[in-house]
Write a structure and sequence with these properties.
The protein is an alpha/beta fold. Helix content is 46%, strand content 14%. The protein has a single domain, classed as Rossmann fold, CATH 3.40.50.720. The longest helix has 21 residues. Pfam families: adh_short_C2 (PF13561). It comes from Xylaria flabelliformis.
Length: 269
């Protein structure tokens, strides 16, 4: 049970949506640094290409950009078509692309329900569905060997806002993440027998663009309210993903893993 082999992701092929910035970039960087071949997709083509070039230069793995606006079904289909033209297998799918919106209940726009739920929840299903042949190709190898210790992995990036009621009025966001957690459980039962694990990370506060306003104005309060007295760091989320994508996490299926320092359990009274 040698540790380097247990957590090895070298040579694996991964797709990280929203992989150019924030938590997605942290995850992509972790995989590339450990020898994986990582495709990243996001709407911002310039940021996508820049991140891919930077991560590839660092190596030892590589990073390839396939810019795509995943709100559009046609763009999801194009992304998958391009990936299938390049690869016969996909070892890891990280459904990370997401968006948030906040507004008082009386003013919350209808359009932001459709936008947030489509990107945060529906597209995780869409991409898992469209990429099944590539994921199943990995799963088939694992099941044929009889040990099922090297399954493909789908990792959905959820949120602690999907576990407990947030203080902010981000109704569509918290609902989308709660839905994503349950979709994770549902898919795990269908895809497990195919040699594909499906798990989710319920992430807490990380220093990202989405959290920029809160971190600028409330960093001290956020960190003081965390049992670990800090915000999330790149190694926290990258490490969790590498665990789930490696032999070490091959028996974990249908789990919602909290990557939040224990914040979701902190008393609010």
């Amino acid at each position: 049970m040698e540790i380097n082999s247990l957590f090895d992701v070298k040579g694996k092929v991964a797709l990280v949506t929203g992989g150019a910035r924030g938590i997605g970039r942290m995850i992509s960087e972790g995989f590339v640094a450990n020898g994986a071949k990582v495709y990243i997709a996001s709407r911002d083509a310039q940021a996508c290409e820049k991140t891919a070039a930077e991560l590839t230069a660092r190596g030892p793995g590589s990073c390839i950009a396939i810019p795509a606006d995943l709100l559009q079904l046609s763009e999801c289909e194009r992304l998958v078509s391009e990936l299938r033209a390049r690869e016969k297998q996909l070892h890891v799918l990280v459904n990370n692309s997401g968006v948030a919106w906040g507004a008082p209940l009386e003013e919350f726009p209808d359009a932001q329900w459709s936008r947030v739920l489509t990107l945060n929840l529906q597209r995780a299903f869409t991409l898992t569905q469209l990429l099944l042949p590539l994921l199943e190709a990995v799963g088939a190898e694992s099941t044929e060997k009889g040990n099922r210790e090297h399954p493909a992995a789908v990792i959905n990036i959820g949120s602690i806002n999907g576990l407990s009621v947030p203080k902010v009025e981000n109704y569509s966001y918290s609902a989308s993440k709660a839905g994503l957690h349950h979709l994770t459980r549902h898919l795990s039962q269908v895809l497990g027998p195919k040699g594909i694990t499906v798990n989710a990370l319920a992430c807490g506060p990380f220093d990202t663009k989405m959290m920029a306003f809160s971190m600028k104005h409330f960093r001290e309060a956020i960190e003081d309210g965390n049992p670990m007295k800090r915000h999330g760091r790149p190694t926290d989320v990258a490490g969790a993903c590498i665990f789930l994508a490696s032999r070490a996490g091959s028996y974990v299926n249908g789990a919602i893993i909290n990557v939040d320092g224990g914040t979701h359990l902190a008393a609010k009274l």
